[in-house]
Amino acid sequence: MSGTFLGIPKFPAAAKKALSDSQLRRNLAHATGTIRAKRAAVVGEVADWEQLRLAGEAIKNRVLRHLPHYLEQLEKSLTAAGATVHWAVDAAEANRIVVDIAQRHGTDEVVKVKSMATQEVELNTALEAAGIRAWETDLAELIVQLGDDLPSHILVPAIHRNRAEVREIFLGKMGRVGKAAPDDLTDEPKRLAEAARTHLREKFLRAKVAVSGANFAVAETGTLTVVESEGNGRMCLTLPEVLVSVVGIEKVLPTFQDLDVMLQLLPRSSTGERMNPYTSMWTGVTPGDGPQEVHVILLDNGRTNVLADPTGRQALRCIRCSACLNVCPVYERTGGHAYGSVYPGPIGAILTPMLRGSDPQSDSLPYASSLCGACFEVCPVRIDIPAVLVHLRSRVVDEHKEASALPSVQDMAFKAASWTLASSRRTAAAEKAAGLGGRILGKRARTAPGGRAVLGPLPGPAAGWSQSRDIPVPAAESFRDWWKRTEGGTRDTGSAPTARRKGGRS
After folding, report:
1. Apex CA 317: angle with CA 314 and CA 320, to 5°?
2. Strand runs (DSSP E) across 261-389, as ranges?
3. What angle do CA 44, 49, 50 make, to 5 degrees?
4. CA–CA gap between residue 115 and residue 213 (Å, rounded)
5. Could you give phi then psi for residue 340, rounded to 5 degrees?
6. Where are the alpha helices (DSSP H) in 385-423?
7. DSSP output for 463-501
8. 126-168, pLDDT tens digit by residue?
9. Strand 242-248 and strand 293-299: pairing?
10. Are 146 and 174 a contacting pair, CB within 8 Å?
11. Are residues 85 and 226 both part of a single domain?
12. How far apart (Å, rounded) are the C-alpha atoms in residues 387 and 380?
């Protein structure tokens, strides 16, 4: 059973460790580069791609404006179709409902479709505590689970692993929890997939209970939708007697027509495909076909708090495509584990702090960005992630200011700058001091690319800031001194200020 993100250090410390792993950086660069290229190719085929993005944004905004109405409509539609609807205010309640259903059916195992919502609430850990094993059936999730690892990407949770590493995991771990991998297993993708398929087949065939998430839930019909690429989802959604779906309340769509827009946006943005190989839809219970007991858990777990934030609520438009991760220069270099959450990358940097609330690790995430804006350019539902990052940074500063009786170093620096610049005499004195410092520090300056003279890391509180920036050497002569030395900058011009200084008038 894989662990949890509990105890992951703040992003700067976790990122520094990740940056020292050259194999990780090679794996990430190759994978994200491949996905970026595929996405760009299929998006380029769509002449009205921007109109589709605008339509997706409008649909999700309409949902968020009228969320209680559509959730109530969804509940009625699901109930009419024979499903049982549960409401979960937080992770503990959602986990309790799933555990109760599994125990009621006397099973000690469940098979799972890849689901961000169940990872968010750490369902596997809760099931294990109750003596129930949760088998991940998505290939990448299986790799993560067998490797006692953590997911590092929304679409490809094992993106940080290469084929050789996957082969070693299969050979060493599969036999401990089921059918073992063949001794002659190679790292050829076809052979790895074959080993996973053989390992999982017995679990599909004997499982009584399956757990899924849902990409979308249609309010007018009660239809849930899962898109995937391997067929494991189809097996989980059709073979077991009982199906439990944990669905974030923001996943609701008003109409089936709205689903048409989303199924054009999602595959191109996530896997770089025109459509997903498997798109599964189910509406309650169909006698004699598929699971005969269907439960849908509508999960809040902080989402209503996000909805209450006028700037941050746009994060709830997210359709979990991972396009923002694949273009982010920060994610490509650090990977997903550094974010300390099941939601890594740019979307995780805004969604995790809002869902989880303030803590040292969450408060570091809004700073895990260069604010380059690439994430907004590729987002299929036009979430302005940079704007939300800036908004959350200001919130972190304000919360720390309220919680601390002493001003921060940054506050003191700005107050000192304000006091200095409010007086011309104080400003002139500061310029003289800077010039003196420039003459002294210039002796140990180094030359940066482009021929600029720059200082090394600064001491004290400024050390962290200067480690990642080139600090130019202060000018030895201030503008005021230059002005005086050159008689107002007009010595050789014969301009009017010089004539007036000598008593003349024009």
Report:
1. 130
2. 278-282, 293-299
3. 125
4. 5
5. 65, 35
6. 385-403, 409-421
7. HHHHHTS-EEPPPSS-HHHHHHHTTTTTTTT--HHHHHH
8. 999 999 999 999 999 999 999 999 999 999 999 999 999 999 9
9. parallel
10. yes
11. yes
12. 16
Residues 102 and 244 in one domain: yes
Last residue of a domain, one of 403, 434, 465: 403
Distances (CA, A) of 408 to 247, 273, 414, 447: 41, 49, 10, 33
Q: Which residue has the tokens 């404006």?
A: 65
- For residues 254 and 221, give the distance between their C-alpha atoms in angstroms, rounded to a whole number: 9
CATH number at residue 333: 1.10.1060.10
Beta-ladder partners of 294: 243
- Give how far Cα 360 sits from Cα of 8, 273, 301, 400, 496, Å: 10, 38, 20, 10, 61
Residue ranges, the chain, pLDDT below 50: 1-2, 493-506
Would you state the pLDDT for residue 501?
45
Beta-carbon contacts of 74 under 8 Å, excluding residues fewer than 6 positions away, are 217, 218, 219, 222, 252, 298
pLDDT value for 11: 96
Domain-embedded: residue 303? no
CA of residue 447 relative to chain centroid, distance: 38
Identify how many contiguous H helices and E strands the chain contains and give both numbers. 24, 13
User: How many separate domains does the chain show?
Assistant: 3
Q: Which two tokens stand for residue 109?
A: 């195992």
Residues 284 and 136 in one domain: yes
Length in residues, the chain: 506
Tell me the one-letter amino acid at 349: A
In the sheet that holds 216-218, the strands lie side by side as 252-253, 216-218, 223-228, 278-282
Nearest to 161 by CA among 29, 34, 270, 24: 24
145 within domain boundaries: yes
- In the DSSP assignment, the letter for residue 375 is H
273: left (phi over 0), alpha (psi -120 to 50) or beta: beta
339 close to 358: Cβ distance less than 8 angstroms: no
Tokens of 211: 């757990």
Backbone angles phi, psi at 366, to 5 degrees: -60, -15
Query: Which pairs count as long-range contacts for 460-467, CB under 8 Å and 24+ apart, including other chains?
Result: 461/409
Last residue of a domain, one of 295, 325, 357: 295
Q: How would you list the strands of the sheet with 209-212, edge to edge?
A: 84-88, 293-299, 242-248, 209-212, 109-112, 133-136
Pair 140, 27: CB distance under 8 Å: no
Question: What single-letter amino acid sits at 185?
Answer: L
CATH (domain of 186): 3.40.50.10420
The residue assigned the tokens 């074959």 is 194
Three-state secondary structure call for residue 367:
helix
Answer whether residue 377 is part of any domain. Answer: yes
